[in-house]
């Protein structure tokens, strides 16, 4: 994926007439890379920024990296889960479609977000977008620690 990004950055640089270019990178769609990207979005964003710096030598600024992928085979937390993990998976699925629950989550998380530094808080998107990132992130982190979901 980074090779494709590097090719695209090269093409943009060739057309930029020596001007600095600001980019917002959006990776979306069904992908086998979904769990890896969603499981560690900060590392992926840093890899994208490093690739841009390497290719463009400071001529490109990557403003934001957004990952909106979905698993090609489902790959949700509830597969093989029991107890608490099964409940978390069910809550995440419900929250993704339940507007009232999203409002409640936004109210609960609001005080926490307000305490974040401004640059971090500005990265916090709408609750429904964040909910799509929670499950792959949690799944990836649990897999790194042995893949055990049981209570």
Helix and strand layout, with pairings?
Elements: H1 2-15, E1 21-30, H2 34-39, H3 41-56, E2 60-70, H4 84-97, H5 99-114, H6 118-121, H7 127-144
Describe this structure in words.
By secondary structure, the protein is α+β, with helices and mostly antiparallel strands. The chain folds into two domains: 74 residues; 76 residues, no CATH class. Helix 1 packs across helix 3 and helix 4 runs antiparallel to helix 7. The protein has a two-stranded parallel sheet with strand order 1-2. The mean pLDDT is 76. 58% of the residues lie in helices and 14% in strands. The longest helix is centred in the C-terminal third of the chain and has 18 residues.
Query: How many strands in all?
Result: 2
Number of helical stretches of at least 4 residues: 7
Structural class: alpha+beta
Number of domains: 2
Order of helices and strands, N to C?
HEHHEHHHH
Basic shape? globular
Straight-line distance between termini: 36 Å
Main β-sheet, spatial strand arrangement: 1-2
Strand percent estimate: 5-15%
Which residues form runs of ≥5 with pLDDT under 50?
A: none
Rg for CA atoms: 18 Å
Q: How confident overall, as mean pLDDT?
A: 76
Helix share of residues? 55-70%
Main pleated-sheet profile: 2 strands, parallel
């Amino acid at each position: 994926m980074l090779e494709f990004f590097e090719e695209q950055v090269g093409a943009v640089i060739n057309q930029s007439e020596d001007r600095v270019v600001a980019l917002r990178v959006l990776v979306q769609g069904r992908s086998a890379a979904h769990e890896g990207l969603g499981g560690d979005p900060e590392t992926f964003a840093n890899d994208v920024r490093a690739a841009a710096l390497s290719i463009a030598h400071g001529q490109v600024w990557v403003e934001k990296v957004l990952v909106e992928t979905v698993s090609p085979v489902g790959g949700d937390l509830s597969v093989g889960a029991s107890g608490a993990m099964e409940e978390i998976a069910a809550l995440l699925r419900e929250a993704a479609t339940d507007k009232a629950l999203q409002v409640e989550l936004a109210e609960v998380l609001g005080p926490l977000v307000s305490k974040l530094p401004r640059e971090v808080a500005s990265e916090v998107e709408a609750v429904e977008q964040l909910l799509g990132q929670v499950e792959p992130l949690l799944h990836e982190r649990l897999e790194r620690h042995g893949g055990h979901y049981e209570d």
